[in-house]
Amino acid sequence: MLELVLCSLFTIVPDYLYRRYAQGKRIGHEITLYSVWFELRWGITACLMLTVLLITIIFYYHPSTTSASPFFRTVPILPESSGRVSEIYVKWRDKVEKGAPILKLDSTKQEADLDVAKRRVAEVEATMVMAEADIAAAEGQIQSAKGAYQQALDEFATKDELRQRNADVVTVREIERLRNVVDGRKGGVVAAEAAKQAAEIRVSTLLPAQKASANAALKQAQVDLDKTVVYAGVSGRVEQFILRVGDVVNPFMRPGGLLIPEDAGRKQIQAGFGQIEAQVMKVGMAAEVTCVSKPLTIIPMVVTGVQDYIAAGQVKAGEQLIEVQQAARPGTLLVFLEPLYEDGLDGVTPGSACIANGYSNNHERLETEDLGFLTRVYLHGVDAVGVVHAVILRAQALLLPIKTLVLSGH
After folding, report:
1. C-alpha pair distances (Å), 143 with each of 178, 185, 192, 288
2. How far apart are CA 235 and CA 29, in angstroms?
3. Measured between alpha carbons, how far is 272 from 209 in angstroms, rounded to an integer?
4. 339 Cβ neighbours under 8 A, 6+ residues apart
5. pLDDT digits (tens, 9 = 90+) for 335-394
6. What is the CATH number of domain 75-106+228-261?
7. CATH code, residues 62-72+265-313+322-410
8. Are 244 and 257 in contact (CB under 8 A)?
C-alpha cells in the first residue's frame, strides 16, 4: 500500500492535474466513478507498473524476512558411560558455574579398580627394591667366585710347577683335575657377572617399564573414577533436570537434563532470507530487527556472516538415489546478524521470533567507481527506496502487539 501511494504521486496525480487544469474536466462531472479508468488510464497503468517495479527493487535490494531468531544451543547433561545415580548436587533451574559438579554415578567398581592399580604400583616399587638387593647379592657372588677362581688358579700353578721340577711328585691326573677346577671356577665368575648384568637390566629396563604400565593403569583407573562425576562444561542454568538418586542414565538414550549457557542467544541473530538474495546479502551490510519479546523496539544490526550453501541441499547416505523432484521445498540463505551497539540484544529472549530487514548500501561504489549517469541515478534511487522498507518495519513493530494480543485471539 505504501508503495502504491508513493507511485501514485508520480503517475495518477500528474495525470489528474492535467485532466483538471489542462482539459478542464472536473470530478463529479466529466470524471465520475464510472469514467475514472478511461480518464486516468495512463496514470493508473503507469502507477501499477511503477508500483510493481518499486516493490521488486525494494524487496530485492532491501530484503526482509520473518524467519529470524536468536538461536541458542543446549548442552545435554549426561555421563560418558552408563550408570546409576548415587548423588545429585543441583536442582531444577539452579545456576551453575563452569566445572561445578552436577551429579555422581555409583563408583564402587571404579574405586575397586583404582585400589587394585595402586597396589600394583606398590608391588612394582617393592620389586624394584628387591632387585637392588639382588644386584648387591650378585656383586657378592662375583667376589666369592673370583676368590675361588684365584685360589684354584694358584693351586694349579703350584702343582704344575712342582710337576715340572719333579714329575714323580704330582701325577698327571691331579693336574687335569686342577685344570678342570680352574675352568669351573672361571665359569662361576662368568655366571656371577651374568647374573649381576641380568639384575641390572631388570632394574634399569624391565621394572621401570612395568612401573610405567602400572602408573598408566592407575591414571586410567583414576580417570574412570573421575568420569563418574558429571561436571558443568559451561556456566549456565540447569533445565529439565528431573533425575533422582537411583535413576539410570545412558549417554546414548537418556540424558539427565539440559544446561543452557548463560550467554546463549544473546549475541547474535540468525535469519533465513530467500535464495534470490544470495547476490545482495554481503558481510558488513546494515540491517534492523524487531522481536516479539521486545516489542516497539527497532534494533540496529550488521551482517557478520552469510552461509555460502543452502541447508536444504544437503545429501545423506541412503539406499535410494536422490530424486530432485521429490526434494523438500527450497531452503533459505542463512545470514548471521550482530547488534551494531554493545548489549543491543538486551531484553530479547533467546529463541524469540523476530522480523529482520537488510539494507543495501551503494555509497562506496558511488564514491570509488567511475559509473555512468544513469547507473549513478539508479544506485541513488536503490539506496533511497530503502527508507520505504524501514518505514514498513516500524509499522510492523507498531502493529505487532496488536496483532499478537488482539487479532490472534489469545
Report:
1. 21, 12, 9, 94
2. 76
3. 59
4. 267, 299, 300, 301, 302, 345
5. 999 998 888 888 898 989 999 999 998 888 888 888 888 888 888 888 888 888 888 889
6. 2.40.50.100
7. 2.40.30.170
8. no
